[in-house]
Design goal:
Elements: H1 8-12, E1 14-20, E2 27-32, E3 38-43, E4 47-52, E5 57-63, E6 72-74, E7 80-84, H2 89-92, E8 94-100, E9 105-111, E10 117-122, E11 128-133, E12 137-142, E13 145-153, E14 159-162, E15 168-173, E16 177-182, E17 192-195, E18 203-208, E19 214-219, E20 223-228, E21 234-239, E22 250-252, E23 258-262, E24 268-272, E25 277-282, E26 291-294, E27 301-304, E28 308-313, E29 329-332
Parallel strand pairs: 5-29
Antiparallel strand pairs: 1-28, 2-3, 3-4, 4-5, 6-7, 7-8, 8-9, 10-11, 11-12, 12-13, 14-15, 15-16, 16-17, 18-19, 19-20, 20-21, 22-23, 23-24, 24-25, 26-27, 27-28
Protein name: Transducin family protein
Family: Belongs to the WD repeat SWD2 family.
InterPro entries: Swd2/WDR82 (IPR037867), WD40/YVTN_repeat-like_dom_sf (IPR015943), WD40_PAC1 (IPR020472), WD40_repeat_CS (IPR019775), WD40_repeat_dom_sf (IPR036322), WD40_rpt (IPR001680)
Length: 333
């Protein structure tokens, strides 16, 4: 379903439309392509999976046993990805890979991080991307060059995000600090710093709304904050059930009016942030949702735990079953 004007009633009607349950463990990361109807997932079974979201169909699986799969995002090309490694980081330093799902080929390695990458973001306007690692650094890269283009040393676990114009990027870290950089001259340091008072937890995730007016922070103690992206003021906040070792992810709708998130008790929630209030709560998911993203151009979102669920507005039709895996390709390297 293409993206229509969202309102409280439409959000409340959203229900599971398709389920994919053959993942061999937890799903680590999900990402939509910005312009094509494609979704990629990475999971504990060292797989990357490509989905057609318009038809709820799995297109391809590739396995990556040597390095594992962790954070993943699309480049601008619909079959090219950046994926972070889970294994052998200290021995090889091959913390990130630029790869093609089309022919299961690694196009380039990016070496430098000494610990797990926990945040990954592609520039919306060019071949730049950023990675934040538990080694307390953020590195800036260019798909066309092996060498790191810049490094920022930080305090604690970093979360990174570009705004939709690619002109500004944000880095969030422990103690509720959010630093904003001009992506053209980041080496001059942040041009602004916001502090989210009263919460000293590390930040799992940070996102900009499409209109650039708001930022969304999710912390390790399962608090969610919506901030004014220009002044740093807290617009609203939501506190969710703890989820013992499973970080949760929140997402904006494309119009920036709603925020959705999982919770430690397995439920999903949606809030209207213009008049802060909960508008929907869903009980029928499997496990704690660690990955949650709204599709850029459709009235749908995906939620992932050990299963992947597609959520669409329910107009009284029964949920569509997921396609059987008979025609899927499974590649390994």
């Amino acid at each position: 379903m293409s993206l229509t004007e969202l309102d409280d009633g439409l959000v409340r009607r959203i229900a599971i439309g398709a389920v994919f349950s053959d993942f061999g463990g937890k799903i680590h990361s999900v990402g939509f392509h910005r312009t094509d109807d494609l979704l990629v997932t990475s999971s504990e079974d060292d797989s990357l999976r490509l989905f057609d979201i318009a038809n709820a169909k799995q297109l391809k699986i590739t396995y990556h046993k040597k390095h594992g799969t962790d954070r993943v995002c699309f480049t601008h090309h619909p079959s090219s990805l950046i994926c972070s490694s889970r294994y052998n980081l200290e021995s090889t330093g091959e913390s990130l890979r630029y790869l093609s799902m089309y022919d299961n080929r690694i196009l380039r390695y990016f070496k430098g991080h000494k610990d797990r990458v926990v945040s990954l973001c592609m520039s919306p306007i060019n071949d730049s991307f950023m990675s934040g690692s538990l080694d307390r650094s953020v590195r800036l890269w260019d798909l066309r060059v092996n060498a790191c283009q810049g490094i920022l040393h930080l305090r604690g676990r970093p979360a990174v995000a570009y705004d939709q114009q690619g002109l500004v990027f944000a880095i969030a870290m422990e103690g509720g600090a959010v630093k904003l950089f001009d992506s053209r001259c980041y080496d001059k340091g942040p041009f602004d710093t916001f502090l989210v008072g009263g919460d000293t937890a590390e930040v799992n995730d940070i996102k900009f709304s499409n209109d650039g007016k708001s930022m969304l922070l999710t912390t390790t103690n399962n608090n969610i904050y919506v901030l004014d992206a220009y002044r740093g003021e807290k617009k609203c906040g939501f506190s969710l059930e703890p989820s013992q070792g499973t970080p949760i992810e929140a997402t904006f709708t494309p119009d920036g009016k709603y925020v959705l998130s999982g919770s430690g008790d397995g439920t999903l929630h949606a809030w209207n942030i213009e008049n802060p209030s909960e508008v929907a709560r869903w009980e029928n998911n499997v496990g704690v949702v660690s990955c949650l993203k709204w599709a850029p151009r459709r009235a749908m979102f995906v939620a992932a735990s050990t299963v992947l669920t597609f959520w669409i507005p329910n107009d009284g039709e029964p949920p569509a079953p997921a396609d059987p895996p008979a025609d899927q390709q499974a590649l390994s390297q």
